[in-house]
Amino acid sequence: MKLVSPGEAAANTNDMSVEAGEDLARIGEMAKNYGVTLRTLRFYEDKGLLNPQRDGSTRLYTRRDKARLKLILLGRKVGFSLRDVKQMMDLYDPTGSNTKQLRLALDKSEKQLARLQKQRALIEDAIGELSNSMAAVRQMLIERSAPQASVAS
Amino acid sequence: MKLVSPGEAAANTNDMSVEAGEDLARIGEMAKNYGVTLRTLRFYEDKGLLNPQRDGSTRLYTRRDKARLKLILLGRKVGFSLRDVKQMMDLYDPTGSNTKQLRLALDKSEKQLARLQKQRALIEDAIGELSNSMAAVRQMLIERSAPQASVAS
DNA sequence: TGCACCTTTTACGTTTACGTCAATTCTATA
DNA sequence: TATAGAATTGACGTAAACGTAAAAGGTGCA
To answer: Measuring CA to CA, how many Å separate A147 from each of A137, B97, B101, B105?
Structure first.
């Protein structure tokens, strides 16, 4: 039950309790590699998005977990909720054609795309309003800082 | 202490406990006129953003409250937090030039504008990523729905 | 052997802007 | 007078995605 010492995970010959050639990562390495915190990884597991193996109580992340994490992060980036991501990933079936999964993903994506476009419109609107207000405020400041201009000369 | 009956607030001669010509609105009317809920108005009051008078326990919103509410809603629209809005409004002084208020507003606005632009960039990025993914998914669906095309003929 | 570092579980805290009761009171109207 | 429609306060709930502590167990290295 010896573990890899941190930083040399690649060059080792551990007990291969699962498969040959698997390079397992512990939580710290995962966090570093993917730019997330330990808490986040545990949180995702708690939500059923990840399922690392265990060596005793230590989490060991496989290639599969890494792929899933990548998907989660992509989903997060485009604005899906974790619940959505889970719903889509839960449909994954390595033995089938995954048509249902793909359809669901596409459906959710279309809706999310619409949301994003709406959001963008809102933001552009806000930018416009804010710019207007700023111009007005600047004008008021000018009038207050140089009122003598209309008196002198 | 008679109140205006709902719907005829304009045509009345009430007791003018405050000022002449004030057309006071109760919370329901305010909500309807500004498209917010009662809860929202009470919440804003709780946060010190509004300060309606009272007739007994009934809230009466003055012209001033309406102006403040408009500002709140504008602030909300451009993405300020209520705390920011309050901070800016708290500087308002009817007897002064309000230079400090204006400077603060401008400062906050510049920062908010930067945030909005950043957000817009993020959203556009997300839209791009999502569109890519969707194209990929569509492609996968095509390959799954018509695999006979590469066999037939 | 001692220490620094990694990891674990559990569980409450954070943020923002309200929503949603619940119980009660007031008021106007038929 | 009965009833429906406003209004009140109080207080817990919600959403999402973690943050942050606490207390403890392993482990490699000097």
So the answer is: 15, 11, 18, 21
